[in-house]
Amino acid sequence: MSTFFMFCAILGGTILALQLGLTLLGIGGDLGGEGLDLPDLPDGDGADSTVGHDSGGFSDLAKRITFQGVVSFITFFGVGGLAAQGSGVSAPGSLLAAALVGSLATAVLAFAFAGVRKLQGSGSIHMDNAVGEVGRVYLRVPGGNGGVGKVIVPVQGRSEEVRAVTSGPELRPGEAVVVVHAIDDRTLEVVAQSAYVAKTASLAE
pTM for the complete prediction? Predict the structure, then answer.
């Protein structure tokens, strides 16, 4: 049991330290702030979920779980378990103590990471400056405003991973896109670069 707790503490602690370092450096966008990226689940009629559609149930809950939260729990689950065993607590008691410590620490770190992200977002980066920039699709963007994906675009000299929607055809990972509108400080409207170039050329004729 001690080996298991030690493994959790070392693995989770290493990832958590790297994650915090990257967040402070502003690398990789909004680390730990988004839910786990799960594939779009069809509704009862087999259609893709749409923006603002609340599917509920397990899928909705899973999308609210952050990677930072999972790593935090694993880290302090291990730390709590080791501390309990070091105090002579039985194996079942150690598991309970580990779960309690992991849950409490996860809640505390969630507030800490939220503060870091707030400070990071309070800088001089404005998504309006991304309009006209060429980026790449990171996570599939459903067509016809049928859902939210993610793109990586340059904004004021740095690469940002942001949410994206499109009114055009579906955009696949790796596809080049052009930002046409900043919906808010977290979401951009994009179109395929090929379609944007074609439309621009037709208007110039």
Answer: 0.44
